Amino acid sequence: QVQLVESGGGLVQPGGSLRLSCAKSGRIFRAWTVGWYRQVPGKARELVATITNGGLTTYVDSLKGRFTISRDNAKNTVYLQMNLLKPEDTAVYYCAGSNLNTLVVRTSAYAYWGQGTQVNVSS
Q1: What's the rounded Cα separation, in Å, for the pair 21 and 81?
Q2: pLDDT in tens, 76-118
Q3: Do the Cβ atoms of 5 and 61 come closer than 8 Å?
């Protein structure tokens, strides 16, 4: 079984930065795209960014320029660098892994999900 574990969340002041990590254990046999999602209680989980195995990326337009997704395949880890954080960025952030290697993956096609890491942006 493949497991994804998020880390790096916490409390940060508005304007601050955090780097989230998504570490993979186990094995995915096909090339994989990873997505970062976030969710606020009472609202649907929303896509933040995606990255293919080869490093191609997409972002939600409203977050482009503040958030950067990257990966270190040698460490089996995907990162989400979050800068200029705003209170509305407060959410639980999840990473999701796919057996596909396309730039865009429908949410239901992600086969592996982490447990999430809490990000609180507050003064």
Answers
A1: 9
A2: 899 999 999 999 999 999 999 998 889 888 999 998 999 999 9
A3: no
